[in-house]
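Input.
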Amino acid sequence: MAIVEMAERRTVNSDLDFCCGWLKRFMFRRESGQKRTPECEKTGLPFWKRMLDLTIIVMLLPGLLLLGGVVALVLSCGSRGPLLFRQQRVGYRGREFTCYKFRTMRANAETIAHRGHTAQLIKSDAPMTKLDAQRDPRLIPFGAALRAAGLDELPQLLNVLRGEMSIVGPRPCLPYEYDLYEPWQRRRLDAVPGLTGLWQVSGKNRTTFSQMVGLDIQYGEQASLWLDLKIIAMTMPALWRQCLDMYKLKRKVRSPSATGIAKPVRS
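Output.
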């Protein structure tokens, strides 16, 4: 009996040691941020994040298809050419992928102006106002409104399904933009790019480039299910503010005082 009791005690103690060791390793990984699995390290998508993306797409699929059809109809009536626009973007940890968007610019539009505008924003401390905010001649009819509402990015749900993007994350940048980044600025792509993100709901075009990078890095370090749900809930109000800002800017550009034309004086 004594031998049996000693064996049982050893078994219980070994089980307790195993559980305590597993708990210590888990807490260490949680505190040090090293809880990613090899698959997560490869794709940048934790299991909870991938499930959240797929759940949102499945739940909203009928409405997304209807909305996408309306946008496609508007674009086809306003401009000839392909509906979709394909462009190489830089995503998770510098990996390039083909990003899809609804085409809101004229076919074969020049990109030199955008390159110069991007370089200026990176070097300066000015708010990140879009180049198309002031009557960009490259835009097709209704293109500015679709871009302000984020509807031109609906096809990027294909990138989400392919695992190249997520619903929430930093915006993917262009290769020539990535080449201008300093090493610390490239850390903003330590998270998988997304359709909306912490920067988008924290001011977006009202922030500077450095502030955008800081917010993207902060998201990559603090990403969680709760934070993603919070950002998703804040996205619609942020888009509404963005549309209002665009409307106010358009009115300011069209006003006589902005163009230097004096109003006629009535006697």
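Residues 47-78 form the longest helix (32 residues).
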